[in-house]
Amino acid sequence: MDLGISGKWAIVCASSKGLGRGCAEALAAEGVNLVVTARTKATLEETAEHIRAQSPVKVIAVAGDITTPEGRADVLKACPEPDILINNAGGPPPGDFHNWTIEDWQKALNANMLTPIELIKATVDGMRARKFGRIVNITSSAVKAPIDILGLSNGARAGLTGFVAGIARKTVVDNVTINALLPGPFDTDRLRGNFEAVAKSSGRPIEEIRKERAASNPAGRFGTAEEFGAACAFLCGDKAGYITGQNILLDGGAFPGTL
């Protein structure tokens, strides 16, 4: 399927690895030019070079922290009029809410709620004026089914979801859609890090924990960044203009509900 977005420009946040990289690669395969950003310059440059080798698109790498005003300014300077915006940031650490301070909450809200809102505010009016825009927020399956130890993530991402629910109904008249992708367990560094923490605390082998967790999913496995990227690219396509304000769960069937 031709998604009709070849030649357009996308900003993809936290795109040096994991799900963000999967989105960047899928968009590049559709002919979309990219501004990729992440904090670690070496990893980001490696990703940019890989994409350039695979696709004849322009790729600009901007190393920096997207959760800071300076980081956002650098990205928007490189791409002041994006057609596509993929908001993404690593989730806050798990824990017991009794131990979280105001500073912990402020950091989580800044990264997973306020930064996406600031980027939307900086780009959505231009998209509306040009009569095309696609904004995809990568959140978490915890928005749909909260996880007690992920309270910081639950709260911040749910706040972003609530904000988008209102604005997405205003922008769609100008062919600007805003949606969220809610990943469940995907084979990423974050998931592997969680397994390492469980292995350390339990004394069990990592591979044993990995197999157990994979088997507990109805799909019998974890998702891949390529699968996630394909879903993201479709939402960014010109044929997805009637989808807005939605929270699309990608979890291999782990959520047992119907809605």
Automatic annotation (TrEMBL):
Coiled coil: none annotated. Pfam families: adh_short_C2 (PF13561). It comes from the Bacteria. InterPro entries: NAD(P)-bd_dom_sf, SDR, SDR_fam. SUPFAM superfamilies: NAD(P)-binding Rossmann-fold domains. This is SDR family oxidoreductase. Belongs to the short-chain dehydrogenases/reductases (SDR) family.
